[in-house]
Target: Aromatic ring-hydroxylating dioxygenase subunit alpha
Amino acid sequence: MTAPDTEFKIPFSRQDDSLPTTPLTREMYTSPEWHQRDLERVFMRRWLFAGHASQISRPGEFFTFELGDDSVIVSRTSSGELSAFHNVCRHRGTRLCEERSGQAKNFRCPFHGWSYGLDGSLKLAPKMPAEFDKKQFPLKRVWLEEWEGLIFLNLSPEQPTRSVAESLATIDLSAYQLPRTKVIADVVYEIESNWKIAGETFQECYHCAITHPELCRIIEPMTDLEEWEEAGTADASGEADYLIWTPDIGPGMRAGARTFSHDGQFVSKRLLGSGETEPPCAALSWFPHLGFFVQPDYAVTTSWLPASPTTSLFRSTWVVHEDAVEGVDYDVDNVIHLIDVTNEEDKELCRLVQLGVNSSGFDNSAPYQPQLEAPVRGFLRSYLDHVDADRTHILGGNR
Ligand code: FES
Ligand SMILES: [Fe+2]
Model:
Protein backbone atom coordinates (compact mmCIF):
# COMPACT_ATOMS: atom_id res chain seq x y z
CA MET A 1 0.00 0.00 0.00
CA THR A 2 1.38 3.39 -0.94
CA ALA A 3 1.67 6.32 1.42
CA PRO A 4 -1.23 8.77 1.20
CA ASP A 5 -0.77 11.85 -0.93
CA THR A 6 -0.59 14.64 1.62
CA GLU A 7 -0.61 17.26 -1.10
CA PHE A 8 -3.97 16.49 -2.56
CA LYS A 9 -6.89 18.87 -2.10
CA ILE A 10 -10.61 18.29 -2.16
CA PRO A 11 -11.62 19.48 -5.62
CA PHE A 12 -14.29 21.95 -4.59
CA SER A 13 -14.58 24.67 -2.01
CA ARG A 14 -16.09 23.96 1.35
CA GLN A 15 -16.56 25.87 4.54
CA ASP A 16 -15.17 24.22 7.58
CA ASP A 17 -17.96 22.37 9.32
CA SER A 18 -20.77 23.00 6.90
CA LEU A 19 -22.83 20.15 5.55
CA PRO A 20 -22.04 19.60 1.86
CA THR A 21 -24.89 20.84 -0.32
CA THR A 22 -24.08 18.78 -3.42
CA PRO A 23 -22.72 15.34 -4.31
CA LEU A 24 -18.99 14.76 -4.73
CA THR A 25 -17.19 15.11 -8.04
CA ARG A 26 -17.03 12.42 -10.69
CA GLU A 27 -13.42 11.52 -9.96
CA MET A 28 -14.23 10.96 -6.27
CA TYR A 29 -16.75 8.31 -7.28
CA THR A 30 -14.69 6.71 -10.05
CA SER A 31 -10.90 7.04 -9.86
CA PRO A 32 -8.39 4.44 -8.62
CA GLU A 33 -6.58 7.23 -6.72
CA TRP A 34 -9.68 8.09 -4.71
CA HIS A 35 -10.40 4.42 -4.13
CA GLN A 36 -6.94 3.99 -2.62
CA ARG A 37 -7.28 7.18 -0.63
CA ASP A 38 -10.61 6.01 0.77
CA LEU A 39 -9.07 2.74 1.89
CA GLU A 40 -6.15 4.46 3.59
CA ARG A 41 -7.83 7.49 5.10
CA VAL A 42 -11.23 6.09 5.96
CA PHE A 43 -11.29 2.31 6.18
CA MET A 44 -7.81 1.78 7.62
CA ARG A 45 -8.56 4.26 10.42
CA ARG A 46 -12.08 3.50 11.48
CA TRP A 47 -13.71 0.78 13.52
CA LEU A 48 -15.32 -1.52 10.97
CA PHE A 49 -18.20 -3.84 11.58
CA ALA A 50 -17.02 -7.35 10.70
CA GLY A 51 -19.66 -9.78 11.94
CA HIS A 52 -21.74 -11.04 14.83
CA ALA A 53 -20.13 -12.68 17.84
CA SER A 54 -22.71 -15.48 17.63
CA GLN A 55 -21.24 -16.50 14.25
CA ILE A 56 -18.19 -17.77 16.09
CA SER A 57 -19.64 -18.77 19.43
CA ARG A 58 -17.67 -22.02 19.88
CA PRO A 59 -13.90 -22.38 20.37
CA GLY A 60 -12.17 -22.84 17.03
CA GLU A 61 -14.84 -21.15 14.96
CA PHE A 62 -13.56 -18.39 12.75
CA PHE A 63 -14.42 -16.14 9.84
CA THR A 64 -12.29 -13.97 7.60
CA PHE A 65 -12.83 -10.29 6.89
CA GLU A 66 -11.55 -8.88 3.60
CA LEU A 67 -10.82 -5.27 2.78
CA GLY A 68 -8.70 -4.14 -0.16
CA ASP A 69 -5.50 -6.18 -0.05
CA ASP A 70 -6.02 -7.11 3.59
CA SER A 71 -7.53 -10.23 5.05
CA VAL A 72 -8.13 -10.70 8.76
CA ILE A 73 -8.88 -13.94 10.61
CA VAL A 74 -11.34 -13.49 13.46
CA SER A 75 -11.49 -16.52 15.74
CA ARG A 76 -12.82 -17.78 19.04
CA THR A 77 -9.96 -19.15 21.10
CA SER A 78 -10.11 -22.25 23.27
CA SER A 79 -10.61 -20.03 26.31
CA GLY A 80 -13.58 -18.35 24.65
CA GLU A 81 -11.92 -15.03 23.81
CA LEU A 82 -12.32 -13.30 20.47
CA SER A 83 -9.08 -12.79 18.58
CA ALA A 84 -8.23 -11.04 15.29
CA PHE A 85 -5.00 -11.12 13.32
CA HIS A 86 -3.69 -10.58 9.83
CA ASN A 87 -4.10 -13.58 7.56
CA VAL A 88 -0.40 -13.42 6.65
CA CYS A 89 2.20 -16.04 7.57
CA ARG A 90 5.09 -14.45 9.45
CA HIS A 91 7.62 -16.58 7.54
CA ARG A 92 7.28 -15.39 3.95
CA GLY A 93 3.89 -13.81 3.91
CA THR A 94 1.69 -16.57 2.50
CA ARG A 95 -2.05 -16.19 2.99
CA LEU A 96 -2.93 -18.78 5.61
CA CYS A 97 -6.62 -19.27 5.25
CA GLU A 98 -8.82 -18.85 2.19
CA GLU A 99 -12.03 -20.13 3.73
CA ARG A 100 -14.68 -17.52 4.44
CA SER A 101 -15.58 -19.25 7.71
CA GLY A 102 -15.11 -22.58 9.43
CA GLN A 103 -13.79 -24.47 12.40
CA ALA A 104 -10.07 -24.95 13.06
CA LYS A 105 -7.69 -26.28 15.69
CA ASN A 106 -4.90 -24.15 14.30
CA PHE A 107 -3.93 -22.26 11.15
CA ARG A 108 -1.24 -24.09 9.22
CA CYS A 109 0.62 -22.33 6.45
CA PRO A 110 0.39 -24.26 3.15
CA PHE A 111 3.97 -23.25 2.19
CA HIS A 112 6.36 -24.62 4.86
CA GLY A 113 3.94 -25.67 7.55
CA TRP A 114 4.38 -23.02 10.22
CA SER A 115 1.33 -23.43 12.46
CA TYR A 116 -0.44 -20.82 14.53
CA GLY A 117 -2.86 -21.23 17.42
CA LEU A 118 -6.36 -19.77 17.53
CA ASP A 119 -4.89 -16.81 19.39
CA GLY A 120 -2.34 -16.21 16.60
CA SER A 121 0.68 -17.52 18.52
CA LEU A 122 3.26 -19.45 16.50
CA LYS A 123 3.16 -23.05 17.74
CA LEU A 124 5.23 -24.92 15.20
CA ALA A 125 8.01 -23.92 12.81
CA PRO A 126 9.46 -27.16 11.41
CA LYS A 127 13.26 -27.52 11.17
CA MET A 128 13.96 -23.98 12.30
CA PRO A 129 17.22 -23.74 14.27
CA ALA A 130 17.15 -24.13 18.04
CA GLU A 131 17.82 -20.45 18.64
CA PHE A 132 14.73 -19.43 16.66
CA ASP A 133 12.28 -17.95 19.15
CA LYS A 134 8.71 -18.69 18.11
CA LYS A 135 7.37 -16.16 20.60
CA GLN A 136 8.82 -13.38 18.48
CA PHE A 137 6.67 -14.26 15.47
CA PRO A 138 2.97 -14.48 16.31
CA LEU A 139 0.47 -13.44 13.67
CA LYS A 140 0.06 -9.68 13.66
CA ARG A 141 -2.81 -8.52 15.82
CA VAL A 142 -5.73 -6.46 14.57
CA TRP A 143 -7.65 -4.32 17.07
CA LEU A 144 -10.92 -5.98 17.98
CA GLU A 145 -13.84 -4.88 20.12
CA GLU A 146 -17.17 -6.52 20.79
CA TRP A 147 -20.10 -4.21 21.38
CA GLU A 148 -23.66 -5.48 21.83
CA GLY A 149 -22.82 -8.77 20.17
CA LEU A 150 -21.27 -7.03 17.16
CA ILE A 151 -17.59 -7.53 16.29
CA PHE A 152 -15.65 -4.46 15.21
CA LEU A 153 -12.12 -4.44 13.81
CA ASN A 154 -9.70 -1.57 13.39
CA LEU A 155 -6.82 -2.03 10.95
CA SER A 156 -4.91 1.01 12.13
CA PRO A 157 -1.35 0.19 13.24
CA GLU A 158 -1.70 2.65 16.11
CA GLN A 159 -4.12 2.15 18.96
CA PRO A 160 -7.45 3.75 18.02
CA THR A 161 -8.06 7.01 19.84
CA ARG A 162 -11.51 5.92 20.95
CA SER A 163 -13.18 2.60 21.56
CA VAL A 164 -16.45 1.58 19.94
CA ALA A 165 -18.13 1.69 23.35
CA GLU A 166 -16.95 5.27 23.86
CA SER A 167 -18.10 6.32 20.40
CA LEU A 168 -21.51 4.72 20.85
CA ALA A 169 -21.90 5.57 24.53
CA THR A 170 -25.20 7.39 24.00
CA ILE A 171 -26.85 4.34 22.48
CA ASP A 172 -28.78 2.01 24.75
CA LEU A 173 -29.68 -1.32 23.16
CA SER A 174 -29.97 -3.22 26.42
CA ALA A 175 -33.71 -3.87 26.01
CA TYR A 176 -33.00 -6.02 22.94
CA GLN A 177 -30.37 -8.22 24.65
CA LEU A 178 -28.51 -8.48 21.35
CA PRO A 179 -25.72 -10.71 22.68
CA ARG A 180 -28.48 -13.32 23.07
CA THR A 181 -29.29 -13.52 19.37
CA LYS A 182 -28.30 -15.86 16.55
CA VAL A 183 -27.64 -15.24 12.87
CA ILE A 184 -30.27 -16.77 10.58
CA ALA A 185 -29.23 -15.23 7.24
CA ASP A 186 -26.16 -13.49 5.83
CA VAL A 187 -26.47 -12.12 2.28
CA VAL A 188 -23.84 -10.28 0.23
CA TYR A 189 -25.04 -8.06 -2.63
CA GLU A 190 -22.48 -7.20 -5.29
CA ILE A 191 -23.09 -3.55 -6.01
CA GLU A 192 -22.01 -1.98 -9.27
CA SER A 193 -21.17 1.36 -7.70
CA ASN A 194 -18.57 3.10 -5.61
CA TRP A 195 -19.03 2.39 -1.89
CA LYS A 196 -19.98 6.03 -1.24
CA ILE A 197 -22.92 5.79 -3.65
CA ALA A 198 -24.03 2.66 -1.79
CA GLY A 199 -23.63 4.47 1.56
CA GLU A 200 -25.45 7.58 0.37
CA THR A 201 -28.32 5.50 -0.96
CA PHE A 202 -28.67 3.77 2.38
CA GLN A 203 -28.80 7.04 4.33
CA GLU A 204 -31.88 8.67 2.82
CA CYS A 205 -35.50 7.90 2.05
CA TYR A 206 -36.18 10.72 -0.41
CA HIS A 207 -36.20 7.96 -3.03
CA CYS A 208 -38.33 5.49 -1.08
CA ALA A 209 -41.76 6.42 -2.45
CA ILE A 210 -40.54 5.82 -6.00
CA THR A 211 -38.25 2.85 -5.50
CA HIS A 212 -39.56 0.86 -2.53
CA PRO A 213 -43.31 0.14 -2.87
CA GLU A 214 -43.20 -2.71 -0.34
CA LEU A 215 -41.22 -0.75 2.24
CA CYS A 216 -43.67 2.14 1.87
CA ARG A 217 -46.51 -0.09 3.03
CA ILE A 218 -44.74 0.01 6.42
CA ILE A 219 -43.16 3.46 6.60
CA GLU A 220 -44.14 7.02 5.77
CA PRO A 221 -41.34 7.88 3.34
CA MET A 222 -41.60 11.64 3.43
CA THR A 223 -41.40 12.05 7.19
CA ASP A 224 -39.59 15.33 7.62
CA LEU A 225 -36.85 14.47 10.09
CA GLU A 226 -35.76 18.02 10.69
CA GLU A 227 -33.50 17.02 13.51
CA TRP A 228 -31.43 15.16 10.94
CA GLU A 229 -30.52 18.37 9.18
CA GLU A 230 -27.42 18.76 11.28
CA ALA A 231 -26.83 15.07 10.96
CA GLY A 232 -23.68 13.72 12.41
CA THR A 233 -22.03 16.89 13.65
CA ALA A 234 -18.38 16.66 14.54
CA ASP A 235 -18.28 16.13 18.27
CA ALA A 236 -16.65 18.24 20.92
CA SER A 237 -13.42 16.28 20.81
CA GLY A 238 -13.05 17.31 17.19
CA GLU A 239 -13.19 13.76 15.90
CA ALA A 240 -15.44 13.60 12.87
CA ASP A 241 -18.00 10.93 13.59
CA TYR A 242 -21.20 10.68 11.59
CA LEU A 243 -23.63 8.91 13.86
CA ILE A 244 -27.39 8.84 13.71
CA TRP A 245 -29.33 7.05 16.37
CA THR A 246 -33.11 7.00 16.27
CA PRO A 247 -34.30 5.10 19.35
CA ASP A 248 -37.89 4.95 18.13
CA ILE A 249 -38.77 5.24 14.48
CA GLY A 250 -42.43 4.60 15.26
CA PRO A 251 -43.50 8.14 14.24
CA GLY A 252 -42.19 7.42 10.75
CA MET A 253 -44.13 4.15 10.45
CA ARG A 254 -47.68 3.65 9.24
CA ALA A 255 -50.45 3.03 11.75
CA GLY A 256 -50.45 -0.58 12.88
CA ALA A 257 -46.96 -1.42 11.58
CA ARG A 258 -44.91 -3.02 14.38
CA THR A 259 -41.85 -4.23 12.51
CA PHE A 260 -40.18 -4.20 9.09
CA SER A 261 -41.99 -7.08 7.41
CA HIS A 262 -44.25 -7.57 4.42
CA ASP A 263 -47.38 -6.74 6.42
CA GLY A 264 -45.84 -4.88 9.36
CA GLN A 265 -46.54 -7.74 11.78
CA PHE A 266 -43.94 -9.75 13.66
CA VAL A 267 -42.01 -12.38 11.72
CA SER A 268 -40.49 -14.00 14.81
CA LYS A 269 -42.81 -14.99 17.63
CA ARG A 270 -39.98 -14.99 20.16
CA LEU A 271 -39.29 -11.29 20.58
CA LEU A 272 -35.83 -9.91 21.32
CA GLY A 273 -35.03 -9.06 24.90
CA SER A 274 -36.85 -10.53 27.87
CA GLY A 275 -39.87 -11.44 25.76
CA GLU A 276 -42.10 -9.64 28.23
CA THR A 277 -41.89 -6.18 26.74
CA GLU A 278 -42.00 -4.96 23.18
CA PRO A 279 -39.02 -2.68 22.54
CA PRO A 280 -39.49 -0.12 19.75
CA CYS A 281 -38.12 -0.18 16.21
CA ALA A 282 -34.80 1.67 16.29
CA ALA A 283 -32.12 2.56 13.77
CA LEU A 284 -28.42 3.33 13.89
CA SER A 285 -26.14 4.60 11.15
CA TRP A 286 -22.42 5.02 11.79
CA PHE A 287 -19.70 6.24 9.49
CA PRO A 288 -18.33 4.82 7.30
CA HIS A 289 -20.29 1.69 6.65
CA LEU A 290 -22.75 0.41 9.21
CA GLY A 291 -26.52 0.54 9.27
CA PHE A 292 -28.41 -1.30 11.98
CA PHE A 293 -32.18 -1.76 12.22
CA VAL A 294 -33.38 -3.20 15.51
CA GLN A 295 -36.99 -4.34 15.67
CA PRO A 296 -38.96 -5.95 18.49
CA ASP A 297 -38.69 -9.34 16.78
CA TYR A 298 -35.43 -9.25 14.80
CA ALA A 299 -32.44 -7.07 13.95
CA VAL A 300 -30.42 -6.65 10.79
CA THR A 301 -26.96 -5.21 10.29
CA THR A 302 -26.11 -3.77 6.91
CA SER A 303 -22.60 -2.77 5.92
CA TRP A 304 -20.85 -1.86 2.71
CA LEU A 305 -17.21 -2.06 1.72
CA PRO A 306 -15.26 -0.80 -1.29
CA ALA A 307 -14.28 -3.57 -3.72
CA SER A 308 -12.94 -1.43 -6.58
CA PRO A 309 -13.34 2.22 -7.63
CA THR A 310 -16.78 1.47 -9.05
CA THR A 311 -17.92 -1.66 -7.21
CA SER A 312 -18.71 -2.47 -3.60
CA LEU A 313 -20.02 -5.26 -1.42
CA PHE A 314 -23.19 -4.65 0.51
CA ARG A 315 -23.97 -7.17 3.22
CA SER A 316 -27.00 -7.74 5.39
CA THR A 317 -27.08 -10.12 8.33
CA TRP A 318 -30.28 -10.94 10.20
CA VAL A 319 -30.51 -12.09 13.81
CA VAL A 320 -33.39 -13.37 15.95
CA HIS A 321 -33.52 -14.38 19.60
CA GLU A 322 -31.25 -17.34 20.27
CA ASP A 323 -34.19 -19.38 21.60
CA ALA A 324 -36.39 -18.80 18.55
CA VAL A 325 -37.02 -22.03 16.65
CA GLU A 326 -37.09 -22.12 12.87
CA GLY A 327 -40.39 -23.36 11.48
CA VAL A 328 -42.08 -22.72 14.83
CA ASP A 329 -41.25 -19.12 15.75
CA TYR A 330 -39.96 -17.85 12.43
CA ASP A 331 -39.44 -18.61 8.78
CA VAL A 332 -36.16 -17.27 7.34
CA ASP A 333 -37.72 -16.07 4.08
CA ASN A 334 -40.36 -14.11 5.99
CA VAL A 335 -37.79 -12.48 8.28
CA ILE A 336 -35.49 -11.32 5.52
CA HIS A 337 -38.10 -10.52 2.85
CA LEU A 338 -38.65 -6.79 3.24
CA ILE A 339 -35.03 -5.77 3.75
CA ASP A 340 -33.86 -8.14 1.02
CA VAL A 341 -36.33 -6.73 -1.51
CA THR A 342 -35.34 -3.20 -0.50
CA ASN A 343 -31.63 -4.03 -0.87
CA GLU A 344 -32.21 -5.42 -4.37
CA GLU A 345 -34.05 -2.25 -5.31
CA ASP A 346 -31.23 -0.11 -3.92
CA LYS A 347 -28.68 -2.25 -5.74
CA GLU A 348 -30.33 -1.38 -9.04
CA LEU A 349 -30.44 2.31 -8.10
CA CYS A 350 -26.71 2.28 -7.25
CA ARG A 351 -25.93 0.74 -10.65
CA LEU A 352 -27.86 3.47 -12.42
CA VAL A 353 -26.25 6.25 -10.38
CA GLN A 354 -22.77 4.95 -11.15
CA LEU A 355 -23.54 4.75 -14.87
CA GLY A 356 -24.61 8.37 -14.85
CA VAL A 357 -21.72 9.55 -12.69
CA ASN A 358 -19.24 7.80 -15.03
CA SER A 359 -20.62 9.81 -17.93
CA SER A 360 -19.10 13.06 -19.20
CA GLY A 361 -22.59 14.49 -18.80
CA PHE A 362 -22.38 14.36 -14.98
CA ASP A 363 -21.67 17.41 -12.90
CA ASN A 364 -22.26 17.86 -9.19
CA SER A 365 -23.80 21.32 -9.24
CA ALA A 366 -27.41 20.49 -8.29
CA PRO A 367 -28.23 20.74 -4.57
CA TYR A 368 -29.47 18.04 -2.25
CA GLN A 369 -32.99 18.30 -0.87
CA PRO A 370 -31.93 20.03 2.36
CA GLN A 371 -33.94 18.03 4.92
CA LEU A 372 -34.71 14.69 3.29
CA GLU A 373 -31.11 14.24 2.17
CA ALA A 374 -29.62 15.67 5.35
CA PRO A 375 -28.31 12.26 6.43
CA VAL A 376 -26.40 11.98 3.15
CA ARG A 377 -24.94 15.42 3.78
CA GLY A 378 -23.83 14.39 7.28
CA PHE A 379 -22.33 11.19 5.92
CA LEU A 380 -20.37 13.17 3.31
CA ARG A 381 -19.20 15.73 5.83
CA SER A 382 -17.63 12.98 7.88
CA TYR A 383 -16.15 11.53 4.71
CA LEU A 384 -14.61 14.86 3.71
CA ASP A 385 -13.21 15.34 7.20
CA HIS A 386 -11.41 12.03 6.85
CA VAL A 387 -9.97 12.51 3.39
CA ASP A 388 -9.15 16.21 3.60
CA ALA A 389 -5.38 16.55 3.84
CA ASP A 390 -5.80 19.94 5.52
CA ARG A 391 -7.89 18.49 8.30
CA THR A 392 -6.13 15.25 9.12
CA HIS A 393 -4.84 16.79 12.34
CA ILE A 394 -8.31 16.51 13.84
CA LEU A 395 -8.20 12.74 13.40
CA GLY A 396 -5.25 12.23 15.63
CA GLY A 397 -3.18 10.56 12.92
CA ASN A 398 0.02 11.69 11.31
CA ARG A 399 -0.08 9.61 8.16
S1 FES B 1 5.56 -18.87 4.16
FE1 FES B 1 4.38 -19.74 5.71
S2 FES B 1 5.61 -21.33 6.44
FE2 FES B 1 6.83 -20.46 4.91
FE1 LIG C 1 -33.37 2.65 -0.73
